[in-house]
Design brief:
Blueprint lengths: L1 H28 L11 H8 L3 H13 L3 E4 L3 E4 L5 H13 L1 H21 L1 H7 L2 H16 L3 H13 L5 H21 L8 H13 L3 H23 L1
Antiparallel strand pairs: 1-2
Helix pairs in contact: 1-3, 4-5, 4-9, 5-9, 5-11, 7-8, 7-10, 8-9, 10-11
């Protein structure tokens, strides 16, 4: 009997995955954009050749991944396609085991640095005077201690925003969310170095169109964070 139950569960999981793939293919084939309504449940069943229970299970799975959005009383829509599932997965992994905690943080910091340092030339070319003034204003907020964590997050989001690369912007926000959730759990300090000066150095280099100086400033900004992770990991 246990084998029969296990086989049934595997079969349902495989069917749910197959119907999920059909729904994703339907979205792609019909060129539906985020926020576009999906057909009703009955229409999906007919279009996909699937049972109502299979469609419902698939919709639940896709809703959790933000591929679709279920608005109760209104219907099902194409989701925002955010990286919320990635954030939750990485956060859980970082909190789950001591071995993974520091590894997750170290990897996230390295990728964030690579985003900014690797795109240094494009960032400098893309930042107009208004963007630079906004970055300076955020650094001023950090200096006054006014929601400095949020100002720090907004600073890095704004730094890559002019690139026009939505994936880089989403990943920057996602990695920030994971870091700020996992780091306190590990007891990592956040005010060990002059964060205002480090952020100001990035803005000053960008304003001067100093490519080498910008890269150096980015490395200097992430160096204390890397040091804290390494010290805590030892």
């Amino acid at each position: 009997m246990p084998d029969v139950v296990s086989n049934e569960r595997v079969g349902r999981a495989l069917l749910r995955e197959e119907v999920s793939e059909r729904i994703k293919r339907y979205i792609l084939d019909n060129r539906l954009r985020p926020g576009a309504p999906l057909p009703t449940e009955n229409e999906l069943c007919a279009a996909l050749g699937a049972s109502r229970s299979s469609v419902r299970e698939a919709i639940k799975t896709l809703d959790a991944l933000d591929i679709v959005e279920v608005r109760h009383g209104h219907g099902t829509y194409v989701g925002r396609l955010s990286l919320s599932a990635l954030v939750e997965g990485l956060t859980f992994r970082g909190l789950l085991s001591p071995d993974d905690e520091f590894g997750v943080l170290s990897d996230l910091v390295e990728v964030r640095e690579l985003f900014e340092r690797g795109n240094a030339a494009r960032i400098i070319d893309s930042l107009d005077p208004e963007h630079l003034d906004s970055l300076d204003a955020l650094v001023d907020r950090m200096g006054r201690g006014e929601n400095s964590v949020e100002a720090d997050r907004a600073f890095h989001a704004l730094l890559v925003h002019p690139l026009g690369n939505e994936l880089v912007s989403q990943l920057t926000d996602a990695f920030w969310d994971v870091y700020t959730t996992v780091a306190p759990h590990l007891g990592l300090p956040t005010d060990e170095h002059d964060t205002v000066q480090l952020h100001r150095g990035i803005v000053n280099a960008a304003r001067a169109a100093d490519l080498d100086g910008f890269a150096v400033a980015v490395v200097a900004h992430y160096a204390p964070i890397k040091h804290r992770i390494t010290a805590a990991r030892a």
